[in-house]
Amino acid sequence: DAHRCTQIVYNLVTNALKFTHAGYVRVTGGSDDAREEIRITVEDTGIGISQDNLERIFQPFDQEDQSETRRYDGLGLGLAICREVVYKHGGSLTVESEKGKGSKFHVSLPYKMSQAVFEGTEVCKSEGEVISEARRQEIAQHQQKAAESPAKAGSSAPAQQLMPMAPLSNA
Question: Where is this region: Disordered (predicted)?
Fold first, then answer.
């Protein structure tokens, strides 16, 4: 589900930008053909997360440090929703972090849909184009432009404006 994958990355990147005041936010991705999965990592040099709270941040309405994060927008739902969506797609979402040094969020998602998962659904029975040729070309052009001239921003506010995607919703 490309839409959900985009929302997951958007949420992780906006969180990284929100909690990184100096340094960088880096997004890397690739595929592991042997395991038939894609891997995405969002790494930042932000405020980081204490070891005691690494799993807690994935709980709904929970944030790493209520007193410190109170100054940031958010309800503490984004990571909980991300992890749930990733799990429902057969993947994993994990985090490595050190307080004061930044965080690394790792997403792994299968890219070959199992026949067993979709057996009997219209998705598997569907014949014909899944994506139009015009849309495929539009996506390819967008990716090529992004690769030729990556967007740069000096702080999180301009960086968030460079990201035209909608935030992660529960829908």
Answer: 135-171
Tokens of 118: 């979709």
pTM above 0.70, yes or no: no
Q: Do the beta carbons of residue 34 and residue 46 sit within 8 Å? A: no
Closest Cα partner for 48 from 11, 94, 100? 100
Mapped onto helix, strand or coil, the DSSP state of residue 98 is: strand
| Cross-strand partners of 34 | none
- Find where tokens 């995405």 sit: 40
147 phi-psi bin (left φ>0, alpha ψ -120 to 50, beta other): alpha
CATH fold, domain 2-113, is Heat Shock Protein 90 (3.30.565)
Query: What is the spatial distance between Cα 121 and Cα 126, in angstroms, rounded to a whole number?
Result: 9
Amino acid symbol at 42: V
CA 18 to CA 12: how far, in whole Å? 10
Task: Tell me the pLDDT tens digit for each residue of 117-135.
Answer: 444 444 443 444 445 566 6
Six-digit token string for 151: 């967007």
Terminal-residue alpha carbon distance, the chain = 13
